[in-house]
Design brief:
heterodimer; A: about 200 residues; mainly alpha; Four Helix Bundle (Hemerythrin (Met), subunit A); about 0% strand; elongated; disordered N terminus; B: about 525 residues; Cytochrome C Oxidase, Chain A; 17 helices; globular
């Protein structure tokens, strides 16, 4: 009698749900952006000088990496729509590799700071004054939270890749791929704001 | 009719699903079963919170140490606050009655994401468990109050991390419920149900959904910052590291003020259902009630500063927040006028849910007017952090949301359980509860005016008489509450069988059997008329 339970699918509902979830993610980071602006306004000189110590080179590389990865995941959606499973899989593979490359860069970048004893709670950092403490506190917290989102996004994409391999996602049913694409674009977009705020505005 | 009966589906209570026993509940994705899961867990946590409240009132019956120590008192008001706010009144009506009735009232078979719905219940239980764990592990329970104000929240030796993280997880659960409802309302209304043919309870859930979605992430990130502050010493809100504790208060209230609209909007929705049903009359000014719900949700974002009048803000900010606080009272008053006008010249059927609605109007108006007193700058300086604030808050949140919750419980009980309750006991419980409530919290207004501060386990002798009244009120209220709950529970066994429409309601939930079948509707209804069509 109740065999028809939950057989029907509504892709537009899934996508609406994803967009609403992305709003919450934006507001999550929005709170941090407010904290950043308040402390930047109060410590303009310290933020200016501390920002000059960050490696614009690694930051730029990471920006390019994320932008390309956003392109590849968008292309994989088109590939699925055109029933080209092999191309979609390799494009998703590239996205995953680029995401991992971002994290590796981040690891080396953070490693450099740690070598100079610059991390939250370090005595060396505390000696440099309040402005630096806040700048690096925000830097580690915000890029850390962003990196966590990259990891979550990568896990999603890996699951999706696996489902495409098993033909659970195909040209008729690819809303999950679209949703993970949306998530990945959001992660990319947040980085587009983090990059100038920490690296470029000096 | 008889042939139709043969094909009738089993009710959601009798349905044999994939799993048996308790698993048929905790693994069910049926919105009705999830609502029952929420109801039972919520009532359990409510019992814990209410008992803590009673113990605090007993401590205050005489000056000095009566039954618990100062530190225990601090831990009690903290836990009472966290549980009652994050685990009882915020999920309250949306998670229980919203889950059960939103899909039915808009003519759908379930919410848009049934599995996500179950997941948010698991988040809910995990969150509360974490909060409760914080009481029994580490170096003593949290003692900051439910507001976790900086810098004390990362200086205290109390076990803050599980409590703060628990509140974060509860926020996540709230976001997922709000998201689910928004998509459900957008995508799953029955054919013909245009936006302005939607009943008012779903409308308030819609407004609430947006507040849950757009305000909760702010508290999420703020709580994460408190966690980072405690574990990594980042300095966001620590003045010794350059941070600003006032900034914490701003971020905290940016969520926590809209959160009171998460609590009260669905309550107003439930009242808007009860009143036309028992007046047998179309609700007065449907469009104004809809618009006022949206207006409350919108303006509610911009008034958080009235929690911080004494914290240090610019004069302009003070005036602006005070003015906006007065403005948000307008849509709430519009609703009250509409409810009263609906009753005008109606043939009112005096039943228990209607008495709850009347009780709601009474206490909600006292709560609302006392809110205006607190919203004006000069009086707030005198009343800030006194028992007056506690009284105002409990009149709105326990009086408003609590009365609406019990009203909704008595209104929809026949539909949910398929049984009628004993209305004589229900009315008696309500009267005792009401008298206790007024004695308990009404007295606090006077204590606050005289200057008795909140959050102290001890007080000066001049406050003694008032506190005796207030504490006795708490005992009476607790007793009334027990009668109400025992009556509802025993009616499960002894109650008469409920017809599909015991009150003569016109919304869709009264067109289907009580208790509803698994799929709600045999055939999705086509809507041609407005929701309260009594002509």
């Amino acid at each position: 009698m109740s065999t028809i339970l939950m057989t029907h699918r509504d892709d537009l509902a899934s996508k609406t749900g994803m967009w609403l979830f992305l709003f919450t993610e934006m507001l999550l980071f929005g709170g941090l952006f407010i904290v950043y602006s308040v402390y930047r306004y109060r410590n303009p000189i310290a933020f200016h000088q501390a920002a000059q110590e960050l490696s614009v080179f690694i930051g730029t590389i990471n920006t390019i990496i994320l932008l390309i990865s956003s392109t590849t995941i968008a292309m994989s959606i088109t590939a699925i729509q055109k029933k080209n499973k092999k191309l979609a899989l390799s494009l998703l593979g590239i996205t995953i590799i680029l995401g991992l490359a971002f994290l590796v860069n981040k690891y080396f970048e953070w490693g450099e700071h740690f070598k100079e004893h610059i991390y939250p709670g370090s005595a060396v950092l505390a000696l440099r004054g309040h402005g630096d403490v806040l700048f690096y506190g925000l830097y580690f917290f915000m890029t850390g939270l962003h990196a966590l989102h990259i990891i979550i996004g990568l896990v999603f994409i890996m699951v999706i890749t696996f489902s495409i391999k098993k033909d659970k996602i195909d040209h008729e049913n690819y809303v999950l791929l679209e949703n993970s694409g949306l998530y990945w674009h959001l992660v990319d977009l947040i980085w587009i704001f983090l990059f100038p705020l920490f690296y470029l505005i000096t | 009719m008889s042939t139709q009966k043969n094909f009738e589906e089993p009710s959601y209570l009798d349905h044999k699903g994939k799993y048996k026993g308790i698993f048929s509940w905790i693994l069910s994705t049926d919105h009705k079963r999830i609502a029952i899961l929420y109801l039972f867990s919520l009532l359990t946590f409510f019992a814990i919170g209410a008992t803590l409240g009673l113990l605090m009132k007993l401590e205050l019956i005489a000056p000095g140490k009566t039954i618990i120590s100062a530190q225990t008192y601090n831990a009690f008001f903290t836990l009472h606050g966290i549980i009652m706010i994050f685990a009882v009144v915020i999920p309250g009506l949306p998670a229980v009655f919203g889950n059960f009735f939103l899909p039915i009232m808009i003519g759908a078979k379930d919410v848009a994401f049934p599995r996500l719905n179950l997941l948010s219940w698991y988040f809910y239980v995990t969150g509360v468990t974490l909060v409760l764990i914080s009481q029994f592990t580490g170096q003593g329970p949290p003692d900051t109050g439910w507001t976790f104000y900086a810098p004390y929240s990362f200086r205290t030796t109390g076990n803050m991390l599980p409590a703060v993280f628990g509140a974060f997880v509860l926020g996540f659960s709230s976001i997922l419920t709000g998201l689910n409802f928004l998509v459900t309302i957008h995508r799953m209304r029955a054919p013909g149900m245009t936006w302005l043919k939607m009943p008012l309870f779903p409308w308030t859930l819609y407004a609430t959904g947006w507040v849950q979605l757009l305000a909760t992430p702010i508290i999420g990130i703020t709580l994460l910052m408190i966690i980072a502050e405690r574990t990594l010493h980042i300095g966001f809100f620590d003045p010794t590291l350059g941070g600003d504790p006032i900034l914490y208060q701003h971020l905290f209230w940016t969520y926590s003020h809209p959160a009171v609209y998460i609590m009260i909007l669905p309550a107003m929705g439930a009242i808007s259902e009860i009143i036309p049903t028992f007046c047998h009359k179309t609700i007065f000014g449907y469009k104004f009630i809809v618009a006022s719900s949206i207006a409350i949700a919108f303006v509610g974002y911009f008034i958080w500063g009235h929690h911080m009048f004494t914290s240090g803000m610019s004069g302009t900010a003070l005036y602006t927040f005070s003015l906006l606080t007065f403005i948000v009272a307008i849509p709430s008053a519009v609703k009250v006028f509409n409810w009263i006008s609906t009753m005008h010249k109606a043939s009112i059927d005096l039943q228990t849910p209607f008495f709850w609605a009347i009780g709601f109007l009474f206490v909600f108006m006292i709560g609302g007017f006392s809110g205006l007193i607190l919203g004006s700058l000069a009086t707030d300086i005198h009343l800030h952090n006194t028992h007056f604030v506690v009284a105002h808050f409990h009149f709105i949140v326990f009086g408003g949301t609590g009365f609406a919750f019990f009203g909704a419980m008595h209104y929809w009980y026949p539909k949910i359980t398929g049984k009628m309750y004993d209305s004589r006991w229900a009315n008696m419980g309500l009267i005792i509860f009401f008298c206790g409530f007024i004695t308990l919290y009404g007295e606090m207004f006077f204590l606050g005016m005289k200057g008795m501060p909140r959050r102290y386990y001890d007080y000066d002798e001049i406050f003694h008489t008032g506190n005796i009244f207030s504490s006795l009120g708490a005992v009476v209220m607790y007793f009334g509450l027990a009668i109400i709950i025992i009556n509802l529970v025993s009616s499960l066994r002894n109650g008469a069988k409920a017809p599909s429409d015991p009150w003569g309601g016109k919304t869709l939930e009264w067109t289907i059997p009580s208790p509803p079948p698994v799929e709600n509707f045999e055939e999705i209804p086509v809507i041609t008329k407005g929701p309260y069509d009594y002509k």
